[in-house]
Design goal:
The complex is a heterodimer of chains A (about 120) and B (about 170). Chain A contains 4 helices and 5 strands; from the N terminus they run H-E-E-E-E-E-H-H-H. Chain B is mainly α and about 170 residues long. Chain B has a domain of about 120 residues: IL-4 antagonist (De novo design) like domain (Four Helix Bundle (Hemerythrin (Met), subunit A), Up-down Bundle). The chains are: A alpha+beta (about 120), B mainly alpha (about 170). The interface between A and B is medium-sized, with 16 and 21 residues.
């Protein structure tokens, strides 16, 4: 079943994203992040970003960069699979990686020096 | 020698014939071994030449791809939108063929090429929307992304050329 495969894909992408094994990058479109493998690419984005619970959308692209499939957290959610939580956390991590948030934080902390000495 | 002197002529001829046969067998095996080594050497030389030609084709392809990226950047600065979809499509196909033509490419490099292909496809979709007058394009952002792709392909080209000059034959 395609939906079951999509859930497996989400789980694997999420775990590898969390572990730092795959690295997301910015795309030409604001708010869309992608990761590429040997012959396919995945993009992740939010739909309805200004709403309280935006949909997290994953798009799949083939070896030629053509859009072949997409699904949201609503499409793959069921009672046992917390799709929204998993996909939203993955989106946040992807965004952080792509924008280099960690590096910026590290740089700021280095510039600010050690913790303040109490007077 | 005393034993040999007791042998009849047919028996002596038989022993000599056996010795000659054994010597001939050893010579044959040696000759076959040498022939196989020569055949293997010829095969290795042919394989090495084929890999070198493949790398040359890939290096030529990457050089063309980099040149095409620079042209696309120029056309985008000039906002020559109508000319761009074909350039993007041709460049994507070129990268797909480079990836397919070079089996020795590493997984990391294969992913880099796929990333480049995907970015080009993304940009092509944006340009199509601009042509259809349903969107605008941030040219500096698009060109900045293309400059990153130039760097990626340049690194890959250097890697291919370094292998070309290596002695591993792979």
């Amino acid at each position: 079943m395609a939906t079951e495969k999509q859930r497996i894909l989400v789980n694997r992408l999420a775990s590898r994203t969390e572990a730092g094994y795959i690295h997301w990058e910015e795309t030409e479109i604001e708010g869309v992040f992608q990761v590429s493998f040997s012959s396919s690419s995945v993009q992740i984005s939010l739909q309805g970003a200004n709403t309280p619970e935006p949909d997290v959308v994953i798009r799949l692209f083939n070896a030629e960069g053509k859009h072949v499939d997409e699904f949201s957290d609503r499409d793959v959610a069921d009672g046992d699979f917390p799709a929204y939580r998993i996909m939203y956390e993955m989106f946040e991590t992807a965004r952080s990686q792509a924008l280099g948030v960690e590096q910026v934080l590290d740089s700021l902390l280095a510039d600010l020096g050690p913790e303040e000495v109490p007077f | 020698m005393t034993y040999l002197s007791t042998l009849s002529i047919p028996e002596l001829a038989s022993i000599i014939g056996l010795i000659v046969t054994v010597i001939g067998f050893i010579v044959t095996i040696y000759s076959v071994g040498r022939s196989r080594s020569a055949a293997n050497l010829a095969k290795e030389a042919a394989d090495s030449a084929r890999v070198r030609m493949m790398r040359f084709d890939v290096a030529t392809g990457l050089t063309s791809a980099i040149s095409m990226l620079e042209e696309i950047k120029r056309l985008q600065r000039d906002k020559s939108w109508q000319l761009l979809p074909e350039r993007y499509g041709t460049l994507r196909k070129l990268l797909v063929s480079i990836r397919g033509a070079y089996p020795h490419i590493s997984e990391a490099d294969r992913s880099s090429i796929q990333s480049a292909i995907q970015h080009l496809a993304n940009s092509e979709r944006i340009v199509e929307k601009v042509i259809a007058d349903v969107d605008t394009a941030d040219v500096p952002k698009l060109n900045s992304r293309l400059s990153n792709l130039v760097d990626i392909l340049q690194e890959l080209l250097i890697e291919v050329k370094n292998r070309e000059g290596g002695s591993d034959g792979n």
